[in-house]
Amino acid sequence: MSTELKYTPIDQLAKIHETLNATFRSGKTLPLHYRRQQLLQLSRLVAENKDAISTAVIADLAKPQLEILMTELVPMATRAADAAKSLEEWTAPEKPAVAGHESWNVTVNKVPKGVALIISPWNYPVHLTISPLIGAIAAGCPAVIKPSENTANTSRVLAELFPKYLDTSAYQLVNGGVPETTELLKLPWDHIFYTGNGTVGRIVATAAAKHLTPITLELGGQCPVIVDPAYDMKIAAKRILFGKGLNAGQICNAPNHVLVPVEKQAELVDALKATLKEFYPNGALDKSSTYGRIINPNHFRRIQGLLKRTQGEIVFGGAVEGERGIEPTIVQNVKAGDSLLEDEIFGPILPIVPVANVDEAIEWVNRFPHALTLYAFTEDEALKKKILAHTNSGGLTFNHTFMNLAADEAPFGGHGASGHGYQHGVYSYKTFTHLRTSLDMPSDVEAFPGFTYAPYAQGVVDYLSQALEAPAS
């Protein structure tokens, strides 16, 4: 498949922006029947073109078909259809109880923020392009979608499909690289949703600040794993490697490194090696293997450079194939300051960091910026509570990896350096929705007789002063 990708002319971007703003001002995207129709069309886009999309993703990332279906296509088709069914519930105005003032008719109205910009990454080129778009459509927001130029095949296929299924006056896909993205960020948007790394996230945040634009950032970061020495190491090994092996480790919430008490390091490493032999009996780089490849030679060389500089001991893996294949690699006895701990690995390397005990593991976690997800393997309920109380992260998953992304009913998002804002289900809808409170005061009701209008009476001042009492302990 050709990797040629036609970029959107830069001089068209402002025109696209204006078209979407005109559509929003017209009210076209407001009716629920319109939103529902667009969401169902988005679901059909994925379902009816699964073969073409899968072929493109395979060309870009060599993902196994099962991974594409499980993490890219099925969730997006399902979530779009589910959102279409949920619009009445999500958009219903709320009537908060206003004690003593029920006649004021206070209403929380859920209104679209306006025209959104969605910038998606290359590692999950379908999922992370469509997931925020579902929220934008459900909220009634037109949107420009900017997929990654690194997944040229997938971005091209999506560019071909979008105008066939979606209303181009409200939803347009823009392809391009840094110049196109830079130009998009100069424009005033009503919300920006960016998924990617922290370096670019800071650029996006700076650009958004110039227009006081609200943003959602999903930035990933180092996601550590804490292993309780009492936990079953064989189960931990399988579940850690499941999360690490998906997309060859190129995922925002992949387990980045494992913190295990030193007396259990050898047992865990043996379990990890045995598991990899089970997962890939002929080797992960075998052509029949269900294992992906690195996105491009630049990232391949970056990961190789990390391995060459590590002071840890490579105990399994390390083989390469061409300019994109790196087999899962286990490195034990990794210490603070090692090359493998400098930043998010975003690849199939698993450093094992021996610690004295779980308390030291918790201290280790707290020395680093908040992760998108913290993983912990333990059946000890007291330890679970301790980890929850004494660490911080976007999310916390016990006894598995990656599965928090499958909990559609719960919010998914970062904290601090791993981002802010949420997505999934109703939380994606809320991201693009403004809660606009309205109050309707009856003409025959005065809010505070004797309080509202000048001249102010001393008796009213005395009354309020008496009411100002410190609460009882």
UniProtKB/TrEMBL annotation:
InterPro entries: Ald_DH/histidinol_DH, Ald_DH_C, Ald_DH_N, Aldehyde_DH_dom, Aldehyde_DH_NAD(P). Belongs to the aldehyde dehydrogenase family. GO terms for cellular component: cytoplasm. GO terms for biological process: aldehyde metabolic process. This is Aldehyde dehydrogenase. GO terms for molecular function: aldehyde dehydrogenase (NAD+) activity. The lineage of its organism: Eukaryota, Fungi, Dikarya, Basidiomycota, Agaricomycotina. Keywords: NAD, Oxidoreductase. The keyword Electron transport does not apply. The active site is at residues 218, 252.
